[in-house]
Amino acid sequence: MSENQYAISEYHDADEINARLKELVGQPLHPIRRDKMEEYLRYFDTKCSRSKAMTDEAKTIIPGGVQHNLAFNYPFPLAVRKVEGAYMWDEDDNKYIDFLQAGGPTVLGSNYPPVRDKVLELVRECGPVTGLFHEFELKLAQKVQEHMPGIEMFRMLGSGTESVMAAIRAARTFTGKKKVIKVGGAYHGWSDQMVYGLHIPGTRTFEAKGIPGSASRHTQEFYPNDLGQLHRRLIANRLRGGTAAVIVEPLGPESGTRPVPFDFNQQVRELCDRFGALLIFDEVVTGFRVGMGGAQGYFGVTPDLTIFGKCITGGYPMAGGVGGRKEVMQRFAPGIGGTGERAYIGGTLSANPMSCAAGYYAIEEMERTNAAILAGRAGDRLTRGLKEIIERLGLPFVAYNQGSIVHLETGAVMLLDVRNPVKLLKELKPRKHMMEEMGAAYMSQGVVTLAGSRIYTSMADTDEIIDEALNRFETVLSSVEGIA
Ligand SMILES: Cc1ncc(COP(=O)(O)O)c(C=O)c1O
């Protein structure tokens, strides 16, 4: 690992952060003072009338009023009209600093003109999709391999969710084994078998409404960072047909919300090798955001299979892909007449020329501009500032970052623990609500975050923008209960 190639300037002390997060969850909540919250909510009443009218009307025809999980903002969703670089404008023409960055794919900043121009050029010539092979499929696969040599072969798909499904299918086909082990709390998309132990470790099928128990019969979870439990599961599975794969987000579940020590991935690699299980890295968030070599390059650990999403198309639809060892990837060989040990996958719009060209040019621009590093430096500056504010105000909140992935834990809902079920049941709702309020408060001050606790910086975040954002965060953090 060469530090200057990667967005993470200094790897954090995961034990120290986890201890502080544990302490935060152990404390009573520090929500925003009621008088201040009323003031923040007045912003939405007085300044966001078009968003309100539109999303109210949408509720009559779209379940919940919005289509995207991240758009369910409190007190109502914002309707966004325009994005550019580090900014976003809503339908009422309010301007925001955009730390959602579409959920992570736009390391170059939103709606980056050089990529947009190339995409428009391509669409003008061949439209977004042809159904047949296009040169950019090859060019994108070669680009991915150039940066991540462990990707001996690459298959483009429509989303991260689909790509996880495909990787698990290939792993089972290749190994002849069934069990798949994930880290409790991790999100690997919403397929039947992965809506298991979602968000909060140990919750197993809690969120699996509409999914028969048999669909996740072969899915298991281990507690974050508990390699002993992973080891025990691998031993137990050996007696029940074996483990096909262990799937991890290399920075820890939910993009590092429960951070892992630096040697975690190497240790998982070794366990997988001992038990003949494939190691799958879910790099949907980390791929190209942590640096061009992904988290696998940063940690120096080569997985058998890698899941791509988000950055693989630079923010254009449809973003998904699987890559890895040739002999495993060969299981995806398509063709209507294909038979034998084939893991069946497909998708009418998958690997379309538009997505592949967008991904190719976005990666090329990231190489040229050093975007991941610049975004990481913005994340460092923001985190330093947030830490300083938290400390000065004497708050128990925790801020840390892995380059351009910044965590600002205040309500810490995802850090609740099923091993303390009374606390979990009692605090889940109030903590969730506090997070909604924090998100709304930031938004009222012109800062959009991901669900009130995660921030994605981009190359477009200059020092001035970060400093301005810090002023706005300070306004909100100064208004929580317990601050004089
Ligand atoms: C780590 C991780 N894996 C998989 C997914 C699913 O990807 P998609 O939303 O493209 O289906 C996500 C989405 O946020 C993710 O963060």
A few lines on this structure:
With 484 residues, the chain is of the alpha/beta class.
Description:
The protein is α/β, with parallel strands linked by helices. It has two domains: 3-48 and 370-477, Alpha-Beta Complex (Aspartate Aminotransferase, domain 1), CATH 3.90.1150; 113-368, Aspartate Aminotransferase, domain 2 (3-Layer(aba) Sandwich). It has 15 helices and 14 strands. The strands form three sheets. A seven-stranded mixed β-sheet has the order 4-10-9-8-7-5-6, sandwiched between helices. Strands 1-2-3-13 form a four-stranded mixed β-sheet. Strands 11-12-14 form a three-stranded antiparallel β-sheet, sandwiched between helices. Helix 5 (135-147) runs parallel beside helix 12 and helix 7 (227-238) packs parallel to helix 9. The longest helix is centred in the C-terminal third of the chain and has 24 residues, at 421-444. It is globular and about 65 Å long.
- The strand order across the widest sheet is 4-10-9-8-7-5-6
Q: List the secondary-structure elements in sequence, H or E.
A: HHHEEEHHEHEEHEHHEHEEHHHEEHEEH
Whole-number tally of structural domains: 2
Q: Give helix % range.
A: 40-55%
Shape: globular
SSE-based structural type: alpha/beta
CATH topology-level fold name of the largest domain? Aspartate Aminotransferase, domain 2
Question: Which regions contain 5 or more consecutive residues with pLDDT less than 50?
Answer: none
Roughly what is the average pLDDT, rounded to an integer? Answer: 95
The CATH architecture of the largest domain: 3-Layer(aba) Sandwich
